[in-house]
Amino acid sequence: MAAKVRIPTPLRKLTNDQDTVEVPAGTIGQAIDGLQAQFPGIRDRLLDEKGDVRRFVNVYVNEEDIRFLQNKETVVKDGDEISIIPAIAGG
Amino acid sequence: MIDMEKQDGFMRALKCRECGREYPLAATHVCEFDFGPLEVAYDYDRAKKSMTRAAIESRPRTMWRYAELLPIAGAPTVGFQVGFTPLVKADRLAKRLGIRELWIKNDTVNYPTLSFKDRVVSVALSRAKELGFKVVACASTGNLANSVAANAAAAGLKAFVFIPHDLEQGKVLNSLIYGANVISIKGHYDEVNRLCAEIAGKSGWAFVNVNMRPYYAEGSKSMGFEIVEQLGWRIPRHTVVCMASGSLLTKIHKSYQELVKLDLVTETPFKVHGAQATGCNPITAAQKSGMDFFKPVKPDTIAKSLAIGTPADGFYALRSMKETGSASDDVTDDEIREGIKLLAETEGIFAETAGGVTVGVAKKLIASGKIPADDSAVLCITGNGLKTLDAVAGHAGQTREIRPSLREFDKLMEAEPQLANA
To answer: Is the domain B87-113+220-392 a CATH 3.40.50.1100 member?
Structure first.
């Protein structure tokens, strides 16, 4: 078992066009490390120089924005779904 | 009418606002490297040659008279009649708010769906057709859905609109009537947005505010272009704009700068102030406490068209206000209703809740001196009150019912003599 990560279009070149991949359970920070281990270079797309999630990257665990949870410390359990989504415009 | 000459009109590329990397002019909105939003870059030197005041003034009175600075390659194919809404000199409202001069940019009568969204949608759909799309879609708080549904119907495109489940009835019907597929999401707008971002990644549709966003957002500039021209080619000292994603505020700012760049107007200092509802104020809260980035909120306000808790352009709206030394504020639901009534009673303009937000915040900014009383301001009123009747039902006075008898009428006037003084 593991957590599922949905990969947005702009990052699929790094994941060989896979739109979902799996990472071991842990925290969001560890999930990003897990992605980096499988797809070198992906961490830099998601995190800035200080190691924080980039300001235009929104990360959700089971549809909840991690900024309403514990940001990078948010716990990810087996079977959870992580979405990575660029900020989009209003309506 | 306008010689577009080259294949991409006056557009040069899509450019990341964060890192400056450039991309082809496709249906894509995010930089692959830092997720920064992509924005259309223009060939200003070439635009400057054909976009003179005389040329603009000779063109039809629609938003397309500024075509060189709108991101389509050829002639528009959707929404020919959009824009050039009235700029109303609002003397009675000015007096009530205590300011020397006040103007209302009245997009409550924008064509065809009575909100400023017709501007962005006609650009997005014209561009979507150029790129070969047959299906268009959007995530919407209501006005955008109405505009996508109507303009898609007129253009013969298939439309999917995604809305939060708790929208005003008027806005829901206003999308259904055009035959659009309306998908109601059991969640708030930020959740609709997230879902649409995921659908856009696999659907192959033109989502106007997702993969078409760089083109779509530019349509808002036409409101600023029109204000400057309608003021007699002058940039207003103060403009007040409501903020949902914050995009409109940044584009009004950009429109003034572009007109300066093209030598169409003299550069004068200006401020573009932002307005939000207190029940969804991530941008004004950050602005007031001097922060560069907002904290997302869960919206709870009658101003549903502004209920975006994670505003995509919040960062740039904050930066714009900082650059120009502008202010922002937010107003409660009661103040929003008061703002709607004040605008209606003084100027005969019935705005939706977002308009009440703009009027309410303008009142606060004038009272606090952030907009000086001896100055001049423009309020951007973005949508029509007939769409949000639920918000003011029970707050707008009451009818007096009598039988069709003169005696009953005389009796009523006797009982309520104040009616004649109103």
So the answer is: yes
